[in-house]
Automatic annotation (TrEMBL):
Source organism of the structure: Paenibacillus chartarius
Family label: Belongs to the carotenoid/retinoid oxidoreductase family. CrtN subfamily.
Name this polypeptide is given: Phytoene desaturase family protein
A Pfam family that the UniProt record links to this protein: Amino_oxidase
Amine oxidase domain location: 11-421
Source domain of life: Bacteria
Length: 423
C-alpha cells in the first residue's frame, strides 16, 4: 500500500484520489481552500445550484470518463443537450443554428448552394486527421479554406464554442480535430449534470475507501531528497508521502518549484498564461422562455446556457438560471478593462432575448476573468509530462496536462493516466 499525497482538490485531484483509494492506496488530499472542487466548486444560493466552471459534461460515454464512472460506480444522471434548442443570435434575431436539421435551413446562411457548402466545409473541418503543422491554428485553417464570409463566421462561432475559446488564432488545429473527431462525433457530445452530485460522489468514493480529505491546507513546498519526492510542506511542517500528485494550475505550480531540476523541467509550462472568459450568471424568479437551451451570439461573441433548462434540478420550480459567457479577445484577457463594456453588452443581449428580465432578478454573479483552462490546447503549447522525469514519485494532473480534449476532459484523462501509472 503506497501513501499518496494529492495537492489540490480540483476535479482532477478528486478523480485521481478516488481511483487511487479504490485501488487500495492510502490517499490524503490537501486543499488550500475551505471548499472542494476548485474551478468546478458548486455554488448554492436562493434555491439555485451551479458550478463555478464545469457546466456541461463533454462526451460522458467516451473514454476515459466511461471507465472512471464504471470503476467508481458513480451515479451519473445527465441530460443530453437538445440540438433543436440550440439557437443563434444574428442581426438581433434568434434563429435556428446550422447544426443538426438547421444544416440546410438556418437563416444564418443564405441560399441552398451556400447551405450545402457550409455543411461540406463543416464536415471537412471536423472530420480530418490531426496532421497539420504544429503552428497551424483553427483561425488560420478557416482563413485558408473558407472564402464565403457567412460560412466563415458560422464555422468560427462553432469552433469557438467547441473550445470555449475566442482566441482561435492561438488554438491548435491538430487539437481541435482531435477533440471533434474523437469526442464530439459520437452521439452524446454535450450533456448536463449536477456537479454537486459528482463532487459529492467523488468525496464518498474517497472516504469509503479509507482516503482523507483535508481542507484549508496550503502546500508551500515539495520535499525532494536524492532525486526522490519525500513529501510536502504544510504550515511549516513536513508531511511525508511515498508519492505526490500535484493538481494545481501553472501559476501556483511555479511557487513550488524551488528544487532546481524541477524548475528547469517545468519552466516553460509554469510561465505560460491560462485562458479566461467573462462570466455573467443570472438567477431569475420566473422562467421567461423555454425554447432556448443554448444561444450563441454570432456578432457579440456571447454564449448563453439556460442551465436551469439543461439541468432542471439546478433551479427552483418556475425559476430560470442563465449562464452567460463572453469569449475574450487576446487583448481583453490581459486585464479587467473590458468588464464594464462586456456587462453592458450582455445586458443588451438579455433585453433582446429575455425582455423584462430585470424585473425578476434574484441574484447575479459576474466574474470579469474566469480561468477556463490551462494551455494544453494551444498551438505550440508546452505540455507537461504526467510523471516528472527529474524527480521520482512526482506526478501532475489537471486541465493543463496533456488530455485528449478540451475543458474538463484533460482532468479525467490525466487523473486516469496517473492512477494507472501508480497502480
Ligand atoms: C466559466 C467556465 C466554464 C467552464 N465550462 C466547462 C464545461 O462546460 N465543461 C467542462 O468540462 N469544463 C468546463 N470548465 C473547465 C473546468 O471547470 C476545469 O477544467 C476544471 O474545473 C479544472 O480542474 P483542475 O482539477 O484542473 O484544476 P482546479 O479546479 O484549478 O483545481 C486546483 C485546486 O488546487 C488548489 N490549490 C492550488 N494551489 C494549492 C496549494 N499550493 N496547496 C493546496 N491546494 C492548492 C486550488 O485551490 C484548487 O482547488 C469551465 C471553466 C470555467 C471557468
Amino acid at each position: 500500500m503506497k501513501k499518496v499525497g494529492i495537492v489540490g482538490a480540483g476535479l482532477a485531484g478528486l478523480v485521481t484520489a478516488a481511483l487511487l483509494a479504490k485501488r487500495g492506496n492510502q490517499v490524503v488530499i490537501m486543499e488550500r481552500s475551505p471548499i472542494l472542487g476548485g474551478r468546478s466548486h458548486v455554488i448554492s444560493k436562493n434555491g439555485f445550484t451551479m458550478s463555478y466552471g464545469a457546466h456541461a459534461v463533454l462526451a460522458p460515454k467516451q473514454e476515459p470518463l466511461r471507465s472512471i464512472v464504471r470503476e467508481l460506480e458513480l451515479p451519473m444522471a445527465y441530460r443530453k443537450a437538445s440540438l433543436s434548442k440550440f439557437k443563434l443570435l444574428m442581426n438581433d434575431k434568434v434563429i435556428s443554428s446550422p447544426l443538426g436539421f438547421g444544416a440546410l435551413t438556418s437563416p444564418a446562411i443564405t441560399g441552398l448552394f451556400n447551405h450545402m457548402l457550409c455543411l461540406k466545409q463543416f464536415y471537412r473541418m471536423v472530420k480530418q486527421a490531426p496532421v497539420f503543422p504544429q503552428t497551424m491554428s483553427v483561425g488560420q485553417w478557416i482563413r485558408d479554406h473558407v472564402s464565403n464570409p457567412e460560412i466563415a463566421k458560422v464555422l468560427s462561432a462553432y469552433a469557438a464554442l467547441s473550445v470555449y475559446d475566442g482566441a482561435l488564432d492561438l488554438y491548435s488545429m491538430n487539437r481541435f480535430v482531435e477533440l471533434t473527431a474523437r469526442e464530439y462525433e459520437k452521439n452524446e457530445p454535450l450533456s448536463y449534470m449536477g456537479y454537486d452530485v459528482l463532487l459529492e460522489e467523488l468525496q464518498k468514493a474517497i472516504t469509503k475507501h479509507g482516503g482523507s480529505i483535508l481542507c484549508g491546507k496550503l502546500i508551500s513546498d515539495l520535499i525532494v531528497e536524492a532525486g526522490q519526492v519525500k513529501g510536502v510542506v504544510c504550515s511549516g511542517e513536513r508531511v511525508e508521502f511515498d508519492e505526490v500528485v500535484l493538481n494545481i494550475p501553472p501559476k501556483e505550480l511555479s511557487k513550488l518549484l524551488s528544487h532546481p531540476s524541477l524548475a528547469d523541467e517545468f519552466a516553460g509550462y509554469a510561465s505560460q498564461s491560462a485562458h479566461y472568459v467573462f462570466v455573467y450568471d443570472l438567477m431569475l424568479s420566473k422562467r421567461l422562455r423555454g425554447d432556448i437551451g443554448n444561444l450563441l451570439d454570432l456578432d457579440g461573441g456571447f454564449y448563453v446556457n439556460d442551465y436551469g433548462l439543461n439541468n432542471p434540478s439546478s433551479a427552483p420550480a418556475g425559476g430560470q438560471l442563465l449562464n452567460g459567457l463572453k469569449f475574450l479577445t487576446e487583448q481583453e484577457q490581459l486585464d479587467d478593462t473590458h468588464a464594464k463594456e462586456s456587462q453592458t453588452r450582455f445586458e443588451a443581449l438579455l433585453n433582446k432575448v429575455y425582455p423584462g428580465w430585470d424585473n425578476y432578478v434574484v441574484s447575479k454573479r459576474i466574474i470579469n476573468r474566469a480561468m477556463v483552462n490551462g494551455i494544453a490546447r494551444r498551438t505550440n503549447a508546452k505540455l507537461l509530462p504526467l510523471q516528472s522525469r527529474a524527480v521520482r514519485g512526482l506526478y501532475l494532473v489537471g486541465d493543463s496536462t496533456e488530455g485528449s480534449g478540451a475543458l474538463g476532459m484533460p482532468c479525467y484523462d490525466s487523473a486516469k493516466k496517473v492512477a494507472d501509472l501508480l497502480s
